[in-house]
Amino acid sequence: MSNGSDAMETQAELLAALRNPRVYPWPAEGVEVIETHISTVFLAGDHVLKIKKPLDLGFLDFSTLERRAWCCEEEVRLNSRLAPDWYLRAVPITGRADAPALEGDGEPLEWGVLMRRFPQSALMDARLERGELPVTVMEDLARVVAEFHAEIPGAGPDTDYGSVDSVLAPMLQNFEQLRGLEAAGADPAALDALEAWTQAQGDELEELIDSRFQGGFVRECHGDLHLGNIAWHEGQVIVFDAIEFEPYLRWIDVANEVAFVIMDLDHRGASDHRHRFLNAYLEHTGDYGMVRLLRFYAAYRAMVRAKINGFMASQAEAGSDARQAARQRVTDYMALAQRYTQLRRPELVITHGLSGAGKTRVAGELVAAEGHLRLRSDVERKRLFGLSPDARRDDEPEQGLYTAEATERTYSHLEGLAREMLEAGWSVVVDAAFLDPRHRQAFRDLAEELECDFRILAVQARPEVLRERVKARADAGGDASDATLTVLEHQLADYEPLSEAEAAVAEVVRTDG
C-alpha cells in the first residue's frame, strides 16, 4: 500500500491551476474546492470536475494515470444508472500542469469526471443538519433504491462475490488498516472485540449469506450509499458517487447497501428518518429476509466510516483541529458499531380493529416513536397473490383474496415473517384487523415461544366515522386497503370484542376525536 506522496506532489501543481476559473471552457466566476480522502472536487459555474488522487490505499488503486482514466470511465458508467442527467463524461486534461486545458489537444496529463452541478445545500446530510429534510422524503429515497435494486444485474453463479469470504474480506481489512493508522487513535481493545464479533457473525450467518447469493440478492449496487452521496433537489432524489474502484465493494447483497443508509441515519441521530426509510424499503420489496443481516452490515458500514476518518486524520497536520475532529469521528463510529453488536429484547405488537379505524396510522406512529418494523396485511396479502400494493380489488367478503383460505394463508405468512424478524432481534408491529381470536392467539403464542413482550393496539372509532373513512378512502384510491362499505358492514355484524385476558395486554386507541 502506497500513499503516493511523490505523485501527490506532482499533481499538486495541476490542482492549484484548476482553482483558476479561467481554466474552464464555460462561465465560472469562482471555483469552490472540496477535498475528500481520495479525490479533489472543483465546483466551477454550472459544472463539477472531479480529480482522483494518485493513491494506492489497498482497497483502491489510483496510483497510475491509466488506472485513474479507467476509473473515471467506470464512474460515469456506474453513476449514469441513478443520475443520468448529472454525470456527463470522463474528460482528459491536457496542456501543462500550470496551464491545463480540459479536453484539449495532446497527451492527457490527468483525467477527471465532468458533471452538472447542483447546490451543495441540496445534499441530504446538509439538509438534515439544517432541519430541512422532510421525513416523507425517506419514502421517495426508499422507492428509488428499491427500484434500482430490482433493475440492476445479479452476480453470476461463477463469481465469488456472494461467498462469506468475499463478504468478510473488506470487513476484516477495516480492522487491519485502522491498526496501521496511528493518527486515527482507534482503541485497540475495541478493535479486537469488534473484529472477533465480526468473524463470529460471519461464521454464524454463512448459510444465510450463501442462500441470499443463490437467491439473486447479490447485485452490482451503488456501494457507498450514505446521505453525503444523495441530494434532494427540486423534488427529485439524486443518488451519485457510486464506487467504481473496486468491484467487490459494489457487488454486494442489497442488505449491505440498505444497512449503510440505516447506519448513517443512526449516526446522525435521525431515528424517525431511519425508521421511515427501512420500513418503506421492506414494504416496497418484500425482502424481509434481509433483517437478520442488517446489524452485521451496519456495524461493517460504521467501521468503513471509522477507517475513512482514520485516513483523514493521517492526512491532516499533526495537532490540527482537522486531525482531532477526524479522530473523534473514528471514536464515534466505532461506538456505533459496538451498539449494533448488542441485542435488546424485542416486542411483538398486533393491531385490532375494523376497517377505517386507523390501524395503519397508529402502527405508523409506533414505527416513528419506537422503531418497530411494520407488516401490513393489506400489502402482504396482495404480494402473496402476485399483486402490487396499489392494485385495486373489489372482492366481496369470502371472495377472491378474501376467502377464508386466502385469509388463513395471509395470517400464516405474516406470522412467519414476524417470527423471522423477532428471532433477528427486531421489534415488530403487525398491522391487520385481527378480528378472529384464533389469529390473535397464534401471535400471542409466538411471542411467548420467543420470550418477547406482547401488546395489542385496539384501534377504535364510532361506526359512522368508520363508514365515512372507508367511503372516502375507496373514492380516493391509491391505498393498499380494498375495504368497502360492504366489507365494513360484514365486520360490524360479526364483531367480537377482546377477551378479558386480551384486554389486559391491550392499549385502546380511539381515533374519532
TrEMBL record:
Family annotation (InterPro entries): Aminoglycoside_PTrfase (IPR002575), Cell-binding_unc_protein (IPR052732), Kinase-like_dom_sf (IPR011009), P-loop_NTPase (IPR027417)
Domain of life: Bacteria
A Pfam family matched in the record: APH
Domain Aminoglycoside phosphotransferase: 114-290
SUPFAM superfamilies: P-loop containing nucleoside triphosphate hydrolases, Protein kinase-like (PK-like)
PANTHER family: GLUCONOKINASE, SLR0207 PROTEIN
Protein's UniProt name: Aminoglycoside phosphotransferase domain-containing protein
Provenance organism: Alkalilimnicola ehrlichii (strain ATCC BAA-1101 / DSM 17681 / MLHE-1)
